[in-house]
Structure prediction request, 366 residues.
Amino acid sequence: MIDADLPIRDFTRNLLRQAGALVAPTEGGLEVVADAALSRRLGLAEFQRLVFTPDEVGPFGALLVDYDSSIFDKMGGLVDAMGRVALVEAAAVPLQSIDPVAELSRALTLQNGVVRGADVTRAEAVYFCFAFEYDLLADERTGGLTHVWVNPATRSVPRMASWDPNALEDARSWASAGALELPWALAEAAVTAALGPAVATFLDSLRRRRDRDLRRLREYHVEIDQAIRRKLERIIPGTDTWRREIERLEATARSYWARLIDATDRYRVRVHLKPIIVLACTLPIQRVTAQLMRRNKSADAVFSWNPVDRRIEARCCEGCYRPVSKACLCDEQVHILCESCLGPCAQCGKVYCRACHSQCPRRHEI
Prediction:
């Protein structure tokens, strides 16, 4: 039985089919028949079996596909040639009537403002699905594929948990590069937030190994240092033997600091995030318009009730674009902000809105 939790297998299957190959799923992998040009480009045999775990390679010439394999890099060339955005056909999703005030209170908590009234109308929104390849590199490597959905019309990020992008039907190329400016900014912030748990798990494991290695390194050199110092206590200062032990003591200290720097560098984390493809599709929504109030200021805000998630989508902070469920409102333009984007200046302590100002509005003495 094929493991249903292998995104790289689904990606390979869909990409090869898009490139014109015949692809059939088998137990543990895929069987591929491609034309001569595609076979040469990817380094495949006329009839090729692909597997996605080392245990499935076997003795019959199956080709292993993982994130480190050469064929995966070659498939990236196929993606580049296909263009970055494809318009896809989404399955019909029925809309239901909603209570906009109740849905808003469930989706968004305002820390320093209130919502006055809410109207709902039916509409259609264009959604973008961004697929990313990510790598976390340190003393070891982990990575994979992930995707995020964004709705630029309301600057929101739906979960779309029940929607598999691979199940959407590809229709045609679509959109110019300029049309992706806002969706890309939203997707970049959303995928950074989405990868937070995976990065945190990786860092926790890394921190434990680093602390263990640093402790062993210190214990090893402290033991040598103490042994030399005990020997020095029994030697007459100024003699040749005493000078040689002093040199050993200094060499031990130099060795410790050099190996400490090497260990620190070995555990330095590097994150690589690479976009693979963008899908666009339309979806019927309930558009909710509400008035947000902060002191004597007010502003209209638009939200999307998503029929796939059956809830109002998480609005993005207007300062950093990260999705928020608890938000603050600024005093000047009533921007929806995360706590970091309505925080104090590091120099003078003045609280200011990062959507209204790129830097603290107060003049600071140099």
About this structure: Residues 221 and 252 are 7 Å apart (CA to CA). The chain has seven helices and 18 strands. Residues 1-5 have pLDDT under 50 and may be disordered.
